[in-house]
Amino acid sequence: MATYDSIGATYSHTRRPDPRIAVEIRKALGDAATVINVGAGTGSYEPPRTVLAVEPSSVMIAQRPAGSAPALQACAESIPLADDAADAVMALLTVHHWADLEAGMGELLRIARRRVVVLTWDQAITRRFWLLEEYLPEAAAFDDTRAIAVDRLAALLGGARIETLPIPHDCTDGFGAAFWRRPEAYLDPQVRAGISMLAQTGEELLRPGLVRLSDDLSSGLWHERHADLLGRETLDVGYRLLIADL
């Protein structure tokens, strides 16, 4: 399976933090004075109070902007930090990449003093997203192999409240379903390279569905079929914030 050392080279271009999502993440972190970002990638959504980023990929670390928190190259399953290392720990769209989920979640709980915030998605909802259901079932099948039930994550956190994160139609962060009202974006190879679900499924498997999408956009069929989306400002495509107080 591809890793972020091979698929993450364009993340700093296509995965720009969306300010509205940033507000929700900062609310979730509460009044924590110190934050550690685990599975940090290029540093999206790190608040100024972030004291450390933990990230296994050197390619991702190299794309972190100047002035961001120092980065420790390490895996979530074994974080070389003391217990209670920060008030809060956040892990955003990362837990599905971990080799040992239980070990990683245990590490989040160990190094967090007061709160853990996890951003993930509910596959039962995301699987019904038009891109996957109508055009790229191969990508949906790939996500089926790595998606983690939200209730399971909440249980591993010792109980967590679960909040829906609606996605704005002009979201600047190009993750999987961010372009729900901008279907032409999925025809851009650079956009697809920034979406692990698509990058890891592979272009050969995606090609027939992308051709169908292109044809339906050209003919107007997509717009007819999804006219109900065109006036919407936000959409629930399955993204969830889990907030656990320790």
Question: Brief description of this entry?
Answer:
With 246 residues, the chain is an alpha/beta fold. 39% of the residues lie in helices and 17% in strands.
What is this structure's SSE topology?
Blueprint: H1 4-7, H2 11-14, H3 19-29, E1 35-38, E2 50-54, H4 58-62, E3 71-72, E4 86-92, H5 101-111, E5 112-121, H6 123-126, H7 130-135, H8 137-146, H9 150-156, E6 161-164, E7 167-168, H10 189-193, H11 196-201, H12 203-219, H13 221-225, E8 234-235, E9 239-245
Parallel strand pairs: 1-2, 1-4, 2-3, 4-5
Antiparallel strand pairs: 5-9, 6-9, 7-8
Structure description:
The protein is of the alpha/beta class. It has a single domain (4-245), classed as 3-Layer(aba) Sandwich (Rossmann fold), CATH 3.40.50. The chain is 39% helix and 17% strand. It has 13 helices and 9 strands. Strands 3-2-1-4-5-9-6 form a 7-stranded mixed sheet, sandwiched between helices. Strands 7-8 form a two-stranded antiparallel sheet. The longest helix is centred in the last third of the chain and has 17 residues, at 203-219. The radius of gyration is 18 Å and the shape is elongated. The two termini are 34 Å apart. Residues 1-9 have low confidence and may be disordered.
